[in-house]
Design a protein that fits this description.
161 residues; alpha/beta; Rossmann fold; 5-stranded parallel sheet
Length: 161
């Protein structure tokens, strides 16, 4: 079974692309990593990140055991190398096939995408500044995939290829 992990800064399109892949490929389970640490107010420390990784891997293992599930898509902002490594190690321990991609774009495209998303509660000026500052980090990752002028369908097709 294949697991597609989609990483990247806030607002780049991880959830949109991941949902598109799930919606267009039968038997695909969709996991949003944010669901796995949904604490109010938000707390993003080492304890909650470890809990989220554990929750994600438990969900993956349950999907792995489900005969209706053929593929898993995980979308999550992973700007912590320890978290990324733990997710990869857990997937390897389950003997699942990993396809990892980090979606990136330039500042202008991120601003445009951010302004179009009126559904996400995180689309505030404060979080936009944080997301813009994180672009350089994500651009340096080995699996960075530039999405500037690509449609959701084109990005999904490239990931699935």
């Amino acid at each position: 079974m294949r697991v597609i992990v989609i990483n990247g800064p806030m607002g780049v399109g991880k959830t949109t692309v991941g949902k598109y892949i799930a919606d267009t490929n039968d038997g695909t389970a969709f996991i949003d990593g944010d669901w796995c640490m949904d604490i109010h107010p938000f707390v993003g420390n080492s304890e909650t990140k470890a809990m989220a990784v554990d929750n994600i891997l438990h969900m993956m293992d349950n999907y792995r055991k489900c005969s209706a599930c053929k593929q898993i898509v995980l979308v999550w902002l992973m700007d912590d190398e320890h978290v990324r490594r733990k997710i990869k190690e857990g997937i390897a321990e389950m003997q699942l096939d990993l396809k990892s991609v980090t979606l990136v774009c330039d500042k202008e495209h991120l601003l445009t995408r951010w302004k179009k998303d009126d559904q996400c509660e995180w689309r505030t000026e404060e979080w936009l500044k944080i997301s813009l500052r994180s672009l350089d980090y994500f651009l340096k990752l080995e699996d960075a995939f530039e999405t500037n002028d690509l449609s959701v369908q084109q990005i999904a097709e490239a990931i699935m290829a």
